[in-house]
Amino acid sequence: MAKNGSAGTRHWQQWSETEARGMLEELASSGDSMASFARRKGVSTSRLAYWQRRLRDVTAPEFVAYALPAVVPAFIEIVGAGVVVRVREERDAEDVARLAVAIGRLAGRAC
């Protein structure tokens, strides 16, 4: 699995994640030390250690249920004469206009 070639020429085959997982599972179930397992399989201990670190650092993302908040209603903001009024956008335009006129009248009076 690790070496291909002949007469002293080494061509290292890159492992896929699946191959690396298989090799590490075999190492774990063998009971051998990493060094003796690597010698027996003809692979380097650094390659095994690299894949152990890489696969340990990769954790599957957890699914987290999250309830989205209800949509915040949009507001129409009326600003005038030092008064700020926020009215829900779904209100009738005529109601909003009457409110604006009434606020304007009140704002014109002395308190």
Summarize the SSE layout with pairings:
Layout: E1 3-4, E2 11-12, H1 17-30, H2 34-41, H3 45-57, E3 75-80, E4 83-88, H4 93-108
Antiparallel strand pairs: 1-2, 3-4
Q: Compute the number of strand runs.
A: 4
Structural class: alpha+beta
- In the residues, how many domains can be counted? 2
Percent of residues in helices comes to 40-55%
How is the largest sheet built, in terms of strand order? 1-2
Strand content: 5-15%
Distance between the termini: 91 Å
Contiguous low-pLDDT stretches (5 residues minimum) are none
User: Helix segment count?
Assistant: 4
Note the run of SSEs as H and E.
EEHHHEEH
3D shape: rod-shaped
As a whole number of angstroms, the C-alpha radius of gyration is 36 Å
Q: Give the biggest sheet.
A: 2 strands, antiparallel
Mean pLDDT: 78
Written description of the protein model:
There is one protein chain. This protein is an alpha+beta fold and 111 residues long. It folds into two domains: 13-67; 75-108. It contains four helices and four strands. The strands form two sheets. It has a two-stranded antiparallel ribbon with strand order 1-2. A two-stranded antiparallel ribbon has the order 3-4. The radius of gyration is 36 Å and the shape is rod-shaped. The model has no long low-confidence stretch (mean pLDDT 78).
